[in-house]
Design brief:
The chain is α/β, with parallel strands linked by helices. The chain is 31% helix and 22% strand. It has one domain: Ribonuclease Z/Hydroxyacylglutathione hydrolase-like (Metallo-beta-lactamase, Chain A), CATH 3.60.15. It is built from 7 helices and 12 strands. It has a 7-stranded mixed β-sheet with strand order 1-2-3-4-5-6-7. Strands 8-9-10-11-12 form a 5-stranded mixed β-sheet, covered by helices on one side.
Length: 272
């Protein structure tokens, strides 16, 4: 289930879905539309396909995945036949990620959408971005930009210059703090957000992967948290604090229950 479509900028529509509280964006040109993220399963993707049609905009001509996580990219199969864009690292890490998710789903439940992750049809992206790609929608163009590693190693942001809009994926989170998972890059995330800030102005509408739209000031605040976390990891590792003791010895800007992967990944990236 989802909320209604909201036009957050000129012909840029966002819909926030209840399942995993993920936001999907449609960017319409006069020839074609771009869909940013596809939800978590083929069933959800097919529902999304129909809901996009209700907007009355030109048909979807392109799909973009902001990263490989299931809640953003496992609905791709509903859009078979369309070019699906993602960062090149999404393809490199796809199989291992699918295996890790499905091994963690222990049982199917008719009432739990997580169960469908075991059996949903998957479709890999077939067009890749290394640093930047340009998509033409007719009277406007859209830029797919890899600003660096952070939430994953394959994060993309989607820039719509004429509408002053940026879709940030999970590099930015509004409905909760930054999400550090088993494939995050905590030491690089602050610099990645710095690059994102360089792509926007004070009035730019920023659509996070989860939550309500935000602005430049919000990203600057989250970047401070990311920099604090990265700095503490480097300081603790540099002074010889064992990785298993780091959470207890740090003074963190968020609940330590959310930072286990950040610390482990940061120590590993430092060679600790």
């Amino acid at each position: 289930m989802g909320n209604p479509w909201v036009e957050v900028a000129d012909r840029c529509f966002v819909r926030r879905y209840t399942e995993w509280d993920v936001s999907v964006t449609v960017i319409a040109g006069d020839d074609a539309s771009l869909l940013v993220d596809t939800l978590a399963t083929a069933t959800m993707g097919r529902r999304l396909y129909d809901e996009v049609a209700e907007l009355g905009v030109p048909p979807i001509g392109f799909v973009a995945n902001t990263h490989l996580h299931f809640d953003h990219a496992w609905g791709n199969a509903a859009f078979a036949g369309l070019p699906v864009w993602a960062h090149e690292n999404v393809l490199a890490g796809w199989d291992a990620y699918v295996q890790s998710v499905r091994s963690g789903v222990r049982e199917e439940s008719e009432d739990d959408p997580t169960g469908e992750l075991l059996k949903t049809e998957l479709l890999l992206p077939d067009h890749t971005v290394t640093s930047v790609a340009l998509l033409e929608l007719g009277d406007r163009h859209v830029e797919l930009v890899h600003p660096g590693r952070g939430h994953t190693d394959g994060d993309l942001v989607v820039v719509v210059p004429d509408a002053d809009l940026l879709c940030a994926g999970d590099l930015v989170e509004q409905s909760g703090p930054l999400s550090y998972g088993a494939d995050c890059w905590p030491l690089e995330w602050p610099q990645t957000l710095e690059l994102v800030v360089g792509l926007i102005g004070d009035q730019t509408v920023v659509v996070p992967g989860h939550g309500e739209r935000v602005d430049k000031g919000f990203i600057l605040e989250q970047r401070l948290d990311a920099a604090d976390i990265a700095g503490q990891i480097q300081q603790l590792a540099g002074t010889g604090v064992p990785v298993d003791d780091a959470l207890a010895q740090g003074s963190w800007p968020m609940d330590t229950g959310r930072l286990g992967d950040a610390v482990r990944r940061g120590y590993a990236q430092l060679g600790g």
